[in-house]
Amino acid sequence: MNSLKPALGGLLSLVLLAPATGCADAPDEEQIVNLEPAQEQDPAESPTAPEEAAEPAEEEAPSAVEEEFGSEYAYADGLVVRLDGVERRVTGEWDLPENTPYVYFDIQFDNATGAPVDLTYLSVYCQVGEEGRTAEDVYTDDTGTGFTSAVMDGRTATAGYGCALPEDESYLQVELTLSDWEEVDDYVRETVYFVGDVA
Asked: How many of the other CB atoms lie within 10 Å of CB of 91?
């Protein structure tokens, strides 16, 4: 039995070497495939990342913005609004309400949209003081009518407004919202808040 072990061991070695020897043989030329060296690919061009490769979406207009008195805000269509001429006044005997301290200011629109813009749908609201109390509208010879028509392309329109402002208050917030109800979808521009202290 001991004499069979070397013989079996030799036979087993030949069987195990056979596949290894076959792998060492030179491959057939018809089976050779030439591979190009791998190239680094830009992640943005990768087909597996469609979100990164997609074009960036257009930025949506903000629903509200805040500006200081004397500054201006430009809407996306080329309409520009500003609020300035802020000053304290007191109403007269024939004004409404009479003998009341108030703040006067001008609202001005510059139209570069390429078409008329109807300003009659402008909403103006005032809040005063640190508590943000809603202020009463003031009607004088210089205020009260607001905008009564459209502003043509390339033109400027200005209207005066007034809000009651107690003498011991200085903070003022003026909210402007311009709607265009002639459009099918009732287009409403972003609300602009002009804020600041009244001297």
From this structure: 19
Report domain extents, the chain: 65-197
- Please give the Cα distance from 189 to 117 (Å, whole number): 12
Q: Is the domain covering 65-197 a CATH 2.60.40.1240 domain?
A: yes
pLDDT in tens, 18-33: 444 444 455 556 555 5
Cβ atoms of 192 and 65 closer than 8 Å: yes
70 pLDDT more than 50? yes
- What is the mean pLDDT of the segment spanning 175-199? 83
The pLDDT of residue 58 is above 70? no
Asked whether the whole model's pTM tops 0.70, one would answer: no
Collect all residues with Cβ–Cβ distance below 8 Å to 111 and sequence separation of at least 6: 78, 79, 117, 151, 152, 153, 154, 155, 156, 157
